[in-house]
Amino acid sequence: MSDCVFCKIIAGQIPSEKVYEDEEFIVIKDIRPVAPTHLLAIYKKHIPTINDLELEDSQKMWRLFEVIKTVAKQQNIESYRIVQNNGKDSGQEVPHIHFHIIAGRRLGALG
Ligand code: 5GP
Ligand code: ZN
C-alpha cells in the first residue's frame, strides 16, 4: 500500500528504530511512546484489521507470541501489556495490523 506509513517503514522508506525483524514481523519503537517501553509488532503484509485476515495469515500470525517473548526478553521486560486496535472507535490510527507492547510503568485500567 503506497500511502501506508507502516508499509513505508517495512520497505525502509521511512526511518524507524527497529528492535527485531523476521520474515513476517518487524518490531519498532513507537514514535509517541505512552510508557518507557512502547513497541509496535507489525505484521509485514498490509492487512488493515483482524476482520480482513485470511486463514493463511492468521495461522502465520500465531508466531506473534514467539516474537513477543523474544522481544520481551531482549528488552528485559517481564510485565507488559499487549494492545491491538481495530477500527476508528478503538482508536486505530494506522490501518495496518500491529500490536502495541507497552511496559515500564504501572498501567491503569483499560477503557
Ligand atoms: P494505532 O492507534 O493504529 O493502534 O497505533 C498506531 C501507532 O503508530 C501510534 O501509537 C503512533 O504513535 C505510531 N506511529 C504512527 N506513525 C509512526 C511512525 O511514523 N513511526 C513510528 N515509529 N510510529 C508511528
Ligand atoms: Zn501497510
TrEMBL record:
Gene3D superfamilies: HIT-like. Residues 5-111 form the HIT domain. A motif (Histidine triad motif) lies at residues 96-100. It comes from Fervidobacterium gondwanense DSM 13020. SUPFAM superfamilies: HIT-like (SSF54197). This is Histidine triad (HIT) family protein. GO terms for molecular function: catalytic activity. It comes from the Bacteria. Coiled coil: none annotated. Pfam families: DcpS_C. The active site is at 98 (tele-amp-histidine intermediate).
